[in-house]
Amino acid sequence: MKQICIVLTLVLFQIYLAGCTTCQKVQKRPVRVLVVTGGHSFEEVSFFAMLDSFEPKEVTYEHWPLQNQAEVFNTINPFDADVILLYNMTQKISPEQQQNVITLLKDRGIGLIVMHHAIAAWPQWEAYHDIIGADLVPVQQFKEGIHYQHGVDLTVHVTNSKHPITKGIKDFKLHDETYNLDRMRTNQTALLTTDHPSSDGNLCWAKTYGKAHVCVLQCGHDHYAYENPALQQVLLNAIRWCVKTN
To answer: What b/e sequence results for 122-151 when a residue is b if at least 16 CB atoms lie within 10 Å of its CB, and e otherwise?
Structure first.
């Protein structure tokens, strides 16, 4: 009887080891990000170097530069991305493309990050303002020195250190372009703020839109911002948070 127990114990131990080995081989697939650009120039080498700095086992991306409208949203069957990162400032989007974006976010729970000048994309699409949770000065009224200013040194304050996007982030210095052209609506969760007079007070906020997690990040004009370690971490955390969880 004692020998049987020993043999049984050894067999169970081997099964346990085999199971552990199998678990180690099963890896969580990376988050797939669709990066949408167009309608505004940017420092492409530095921008994509920032994205490439993320661990490829965790984040992969596909770049789609828009030519005129929002042609990347002409069809959404299939749609392989987990998160959409908008870094475009294109102005045109057809009604069909609008509905496809709404379906992706509201019904399918595809995450959305709206970064820097993408806040000013599609100004005539009222639902876009609902999606990002901000009211915008009309694009044709933009004036440098009033609504935006280049090369500003500002202090970024973390206002919600418990949120997944800003968890572990401390207040930091940032050299960036500031905007004073949009107003975060009151039903959003403010994450990053500044008291610099050339900037809106809110720099980053989070919200939901239907099933989607949405993060708006006003920062991110050029390599000074792309290479800022704190801002890189905020963006990576935003990608993680925006992945569909339902």
So the answer is: bbebeebbebbbbebbeeeeeeeeebbbee
